[in-house]
């Protein structure tokens, strides 16, 4: 063998015979296969593994895309590239082309979040601000479009380089979707699954336009300021409470506090009587409001009911001191509590002088509310 044959053999061995990419990273989306002067030998082996696709670029133009498998590179396997180069009868010499390996696996647990608060106009709470964050998963479904529109000539395109763009896209579309949903503010956190599905449907066309498929989209949390959260909780509780029972409960608690007062028996009795009267008055008020809303349709639309008829107000004497005025129900509570008795002096407008309670005709009904003394054993 002559010296020229030896040189030719050595040079032919320098050409790359196997084209493949073993990804040892977790974030590489596109890797350009590097070789000297981009020369590929006729009959070279192309190995594309599962989760990859190989894209051939000739003079800046997309030539061929190979799915997973093993290929022997010749004119039969490269019809588009052969047409571009004008090969009519095959070729035996090396050809030049750039080969990009594109990872088509699913990239999961990608984080997203709103950089700034989203301002919403709620019917009950006015302008409010919320934030949201979650995760998403994507993969490349059109390698050729992705390389042409996003990667360009980048030799090693990573997940980090596209993530910021995707996060901005998600944040913008999420803000639009939330604003158009027009839900009450407290329902956003309770409808994250429905909102996630809607956002996925809205965002997918944007991802597909650059060769990416948005596979999953999750809203993990929708947060709001603490003062607004407390206000919503209070509103929710108030909306479910029986106001009549609440008023009676608070009146009973006030009566207990008054009864425990250390100011003496008279003060305790007066507190108990006023507590009973307050409970009765508040119970009557809420019952009237409930009945009015049920029987009168105009009550729920803001119509004002007529004023209650005037009730007489009574003054009474305790320990030589004038007290009052109180209405009949309050006076009844004082009598029942022992703060006043049948001999207590009372007066109301229209009476010429003070008189004992038992001598006032409309108050004589109170006397029957006290049981007689127990018989002597």
Protein described:
The protein is of the alpha+beta class and 377 residues long. Helix content is 37%, strand content 28%. It contains 9 helices and 17 strands. The protein has a 5-stranded antiparallel sheet. Strands 1, 3, 6 and 7 form a 4-stranded mixed sheet that branches. Strands 9, 10, 11 and 13 form a 4-stranded antiparallel sheet that branches. A hairpin with a 3-residue loop joins β10 and β11. α4 (159-181) packs across α5 and α8 (265-295) crosses α9. The radius of gyration is 44 Å and the shape is rod-shaped. Mean pLDDT is 75; it is low at 11-16 and 264-272. Residues 30-238 form the SPFH domain. It comes from Tenacibaculum polynesiense. This is SPFH domain-containing protein. Residues 289-314 are annotated as: Disordered.
Lay out the secondary structure:
Layout: H1 3-14, E1 16-19, E2 28-33, E3 39-48, E4 52-58, E5 61-66, E6 69-72, H2 79-85, E7 95-96, E8 98-103, E9 107-113, E10 118-122, E11 126-140, H3 143-151, E12 156-158, H4 159-181, H5 192-208, E13 212-223, H6 226-240, H7 243-259, H8 265-295, E14 314-318, E15 321-326, H9 328-337, E16 345-348, E17 355-356
Parallel strand pairs: 1-3
Antiparallel strand pairs: 2-8, 2-12, 3-6, 3-7, 4-5, 4-8, 9-11, 10-11, 11-13, 14-15, 14-16, 16-17
Helix pairs in contact: 4-5, 7-8, 8-9
Domain SPFH: 30-238
Biased composition (Low complexity): 289-303
Region (Disordered): 289-314
């Amino acid at each position: 063998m002559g010296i020229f044959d030896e040189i030719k053999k050595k040079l032919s061995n320098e050409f790359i015979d196997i084209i493949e990419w073993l990804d040892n990273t977790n974030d590489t989306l596109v890797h350009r296969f590097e070789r000297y002067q981009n020369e590929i030998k006729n009959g070279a082996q192309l190995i594309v593994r599962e989760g990859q696709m190989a894209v051939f670029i000739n003079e800046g133009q997309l030539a061929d895309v190979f799915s997973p498998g093993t290929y022997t590179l010749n004119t039969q396997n490269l019809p588009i590239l052969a047409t571009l180069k004008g090969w009519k009868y095959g070729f035996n010499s090396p050809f030049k082309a750039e080969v990009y390996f594109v990872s088509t696996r699913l990239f999961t647990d990608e984080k997203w979040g709103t950089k700034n608060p989203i301002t919403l106009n709620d019917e009950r709470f006015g302008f409010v601000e919320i934030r949201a964050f979650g995760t998403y998963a994507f993969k490349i479904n059109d390698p050729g479009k992705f390389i042409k529109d996003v990667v360009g000539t980048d030799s090693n395109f990573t997940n980090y380089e596209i993530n910021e763009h995707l996060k901005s896209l998600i944040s913008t579309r999420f803000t639009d979707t939330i604003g158009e949903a027009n839900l009450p503010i407290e329902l956003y956190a309770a409808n994250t699954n429905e909102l996630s599905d809607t956002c996925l449907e809205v965002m997918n066309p944007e991802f597909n336009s650059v060769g990416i498929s948005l596979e999953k989209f999750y809203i993990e949390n929708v947060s709001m300021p603490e003062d607004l959260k407390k206000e919503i909780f209070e509103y929710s509780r108030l909306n479910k409470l029986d106001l009549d029972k609440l008023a009676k409960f608070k009146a009973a608690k006030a009566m207990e506090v008054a009864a425990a007062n250390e100011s003496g028996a008279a003060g305790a009795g007066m507190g108990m009587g006023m507590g009973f009267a307050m409970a009765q008055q508040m119970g009557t008020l809420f019952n009237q409001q409930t009945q009015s809303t049920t029987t009168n349709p105009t009550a729920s639309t803001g119509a004002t009911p007529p004023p209650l008829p005037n009730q007489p107000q009574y003054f009474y004497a305790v320990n030589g001191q004038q007290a009052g005025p109180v209405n009949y129900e309050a006076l009844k509570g004082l009598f029942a509590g022992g703060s006043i008795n049948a001999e207590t002096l009372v007066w109301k407008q229209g009476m010429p002088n003070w008189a004992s309670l038992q001598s006032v005709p409309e108050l004589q009904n109170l006397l029957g509310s006290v049981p007689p003394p127990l018989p002597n054993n």
